[in-house]
Structure formats: structure tokens, C-alpha cells
Specification:
The protein is an alpha/beta fold. It has helices at about 20-30, 60-70, 85-100, 110-115, 115-125, 175-190, 250-265, 295-300, 305-315, 335-345, 350-355, 370-390, and strands spanning about 5-15, 35-40, 55, 75-80, 100-105, 135, 155, 170-175, 195-200, 210-215, 220-235, 240-245, 265-275, 280-290, 330, 360-365. It folds into three domains: about 5-110, 3-Layer(aba) Sandwich (Rossmann fold), CATH 3.40.50; about 135-200, ATP-grasp fold, A domain (Dna Ligase, domain 1, 2-Layer Sandwich), CATH 3.30.1490.20; about 210-390, ATP-grasp fold, B domain (D-amino Acid Aminotransferase, Chain A, domain 1, 2-Layer Sandwich), CATH 3.30.470.20. It has twelve helices and 16 strands. A hairpin with a 5-residue loop joins strand 10 and strand 11 (about 220-235). The longest helix has 21 residues, at about 370-390. It starts with 6 loop residues before the first strand and ends with a helix.
Length: about 400
């Protein structure tokens, strides 16, 4: 009996929340129909009719390796799209085992240090990109250096650990009293091997956050790029994307390019900045080395970074795109918009602008030809809305 012939290549999306679903939508629209999804359960993208292959995985390298090898039995080559930092760390561990038949969108030599926010700020110094005054906390004694900073402060793990531990993603401290209340918890995390960066807070709300996003080849060439801004975040100023637009000044493009080149990373890269109205400077918040939640902003304004990665990895012609900037396009994640409307006092003016403003708007999930993810999002909306009501009206 003849062995079944393998198919050529497949795009593998890791994670099925709105960022993973947006990757799938872009690839499918660009006539890339062999798309696989690995996620850890019932995600938005799991219900999409655009997914040709699905596997449920856990957070371990062993589970990921097993399913990648199973996919390789069907396809010769796998182009991987990670959507969180833990996936990048796992792929780095598996590099030697899978690089022969996978495109891994990162520079193996620098990926570990590049995920560290303090290293990112060190690179800022090299290329003269502004960033908030910051200290690194690698041991308990480093907490004594907090006196060199001016409150309010933001504290973050130096690398993303909120996906695998009970640590916070971002902790905002208004003054010394709040710091003293949190100090014991910080010491416990440090004793368990956690490292933090503590930065002076850049004033202003979540309407002042901008990003540069590009695909950089293994030869160090930026093949396509776009800029945009978050309109608001969910569930607070320190949360995640709620809505976004394709608007951004040229300074974001210039600073983003400089950081990407200095980091010497490959794949999809996103430096994120906050405008400090005190001095008019765009200061780095962090660099994401994978597709973030609102990356479809670039795609709907004309720049197909995920298609770019696929074509580059498979030695096909890479199209050079120019971003649409004359039309203001809003990318709206209604689950988060409605959650904010319930939970955040005075949010109506932002909701009205995000949902009804701009020249065009694109929904993150709703699509008649792929309706099941939208129906599943309604379940998520009920859960988020209920939680937001309990929190706002102190009913917990």
C-alpha cells in the first residue's frame, strides 16, 4: 500500500482568542486556506469554519511538541504564529527539535533577553528612544532603590509570568502607603524567583498608547510595517486592547524602526509607546515579539503582516504594502467595549467615539460567513458583563 503523500505547508496559529482569530481571518482572506489552530480549550477561533486542523494542547513543551509532530505527519512545512510570550519560550526550548520543518518567527540568539523589559529599556538608551525612569528588582535589597523614583509607579514582572503564575500583569501604586501594603507580596514573589521592573508612571489615560508593528526577516530586513493607536483598554487604563485605530504620528514609526533594528529580532515585532504630554515624547512601555490582540488594525488598513510571514517562510513573492492613513478606521472588540461601559464610570463618551466614530469600523469577531465565533463571544460577554456589574456595584 502506498504511503499517503504529505501536503506542502500549513499556517499554525497558537492560541484562539481575538489575536489568534484575527490571524486566521487575515490568512484566509489572503487565500491561505491550510490553517491549523492549537489552543487550550474553548476559544473564539475554535468555532471558526476557517480552521482546517485543530488540536488541544496544554502549556508544556512536551504537549506542544507532540502535536507539532502529529501535524508534521500531514504537512511538510509548518509556519508558526505565536500569540503569547509563554509560547515563544516553549518554541525556543523546542527549537532544535522542530526547526527542520517549521518556520520559527524569532531570532534564537536574542529571544530570551529580548523578552526582558529591562533589556528593552537598555536598548532604548542605545538608540535614544525615551522611556520612563526605571529600576530593576532582581532581589529583595533592590526594593530599597524605590526611593530614587517619583510616585505614582507601575510595577511589572520583567517577563510575562501572569500566564503561568499568580503574579499580576501590572500593579499601579499611587503613593508610599500603597507600596508598603504591597511590599510583603512583592517580597514573596522575589523569594520565589520572580524579577520585576518598577517604572515612574507616565500620566494620561489609555487613549495615549501607540504602536509600531512590522515583520522583520531573518536577514534583518523590515518587509512590511504599520502604526496605530489604542483607543481604549479593558478593563482599566492598565488592561488590554478594547478598540484601536490606524492613527499615529510619524515619531512612532521612526522610534519603532530604531528599536526593532537595535533588538535584532525576527518575525512580527511591536514596540508600544505612551505619549507623555508633559514633554511631548513617546516613551516605550514594552516590546511584544509576537502578534498582540489588536494587530488586525494593520490588516484592515492595508498591511498584511501575517501573509508577509507566510510568503517569506515559503519562499513566495512578498508583496510590499502601504498603510491606509487618509481614512480613520476603528477596530472594535465589542465584548470589551460593553464590559467597559458597565464597569467604568463615565465611559459612554469613549464608547460612543470608538463604536460610532471614525470613517469606517470593523468588528473584531462578527462575520456572517463565520458566525459561530460571534455566538460564542456572546457567552463570554454575559460572563464579563456579570463580573463587571458585581465589581462596579460592589456586590461581591
Amino acid at each position: 500500500m502506498l504511503a499517503k503523500k504529505k501536503r506542502s505547508s500549513i499556517a499554525l496559529v497558537l492560541g484562539g482568542y481575538v489575536n489568534g482569530y484575527s490571524i486566521i481571518k487575515e490568512l484566509y482572506e489572503q487565500d491561505i486556506k491550510d490553517i491549523a489552530l492549537f489552543d487550550s480549550g474553548r476559544s473564539l477561533a475554535r468555532f471558526s469554519n476557517k480552521v482546517a486542523y485543530y488540536a488541544k494542547i496544554d502549556s508544556t513543551t512536551e504537549g506542544l511538541l507532540y502535536e507539532i509532530k502529529a501535524l508534521h505527519k500531514i504537512y511538510n512545512y509548518i509556519i508558526i504564529y505565536p500569540t503569547d510570550d509563554l509560547q515563544l519560550e516553549n518554541l525556543h526550548v523546542l527549537y532544535d527539535s522542530i526547526v527542520g520543518f517549521c518556520y520559527l518567527p524569532f531570532n534564537r540568539q536574542v529571544i530570551v533577553e529580548s523578552l526582558d523589559k529591562f533589556h528593552q529599556y537598555h536598548i532604548c538608551e542605545k538608540v535614544e528612544v525615551p522611556y520612563p525612569k526605571t529600576i530593576a528588582v532582581k532581589e529583595i535589597a533592590c526594593l530599597d532603590n524605590i526611593g530614587s523614583l517619583t510616585f505614582p509607579l507601575l510595577i511589572k514582572p520583567s517577563t510575562r509570568k501572569d500566564l503561568t503564575t499568580g503574579v499580576f500583569r501590572t500593579l499601579y501604586l499611587e503613593g508610599v502607603e500603597e507600596y508598603q501594603n504591597e511590599r510583603g507580596g512583592l517580597i514573596c514573589f522575589i523569594q520565589n524567583g520572580m524579577e520585576f521592573i518598577i517604572s515612574e508612571y507616565i500620566p494620561g489615560d489609555d487613549t495615549n498608547i501607540y504602536a509600531y508593528t512590522c515583520f522583520r526577516s531573518n536577514e534583518g530586513v523590515i518587509l512590511n510595517e504599520w502604526t496605530g493607536k489604542k483607543l481604549t483598554q479593558y478593563p482599566s487604563n492598565y488592561g488590554v486592547f478594547c478598540s484601536s485605530s490606524n492613527e499615529a504620528p510619524v515619531e512612532v514609526l521612526i522610534q519603532g524602526r530604531a528599536l526593532v533594528e537595535a533588538l535584532n529580532s525576527y518575525g512580527i515585532i511591536e514596540p508600544e509607546f505612551k505619549l507623555d504630554y508633559r514633554d511631548g515624547k513617546f516613551k516605550l512601555m514594552e516590546v511584544n515579539l509576537r502578534s498582540m490582540m489588536w494587530h488586525r488594525t494593520g490588516s484592515i488598513s492595508g498591511v498584511k503582516l501575517h501573509e508577509t510571514q507566510y510568503n517569506y517562510a515559503t519562499n513566495k513573492t512578498v508583496i510590499t504594502y502601504q498603510q491606509e492613513k487618509h481614512t480613520r478606521i476603528h477596530f472594535v472588540f465589542m465584548i470589551h467595549e460593553l464590559g467597559n461601559l458597565i464597569a467604568r464610570k463615565g465611559y459612554w463618551k469613549y464608547f460612543r467615539y470608538n463604536v460610532f466614530g471614525g470613517d469606517e469600523r470593523v468588528w473584531a469577531v462578527f462575520e456572517w460567513r463565520d458566525i459561530k465565533p460571534f455566538f460564542y463571544s456572546l457567552i463570554l460577554l454575559v460572563k464579563k458583563g456579570g463580573s463587571a456589574c458585581l465589581k462596579r456595584f460592589d456586590l461581591r
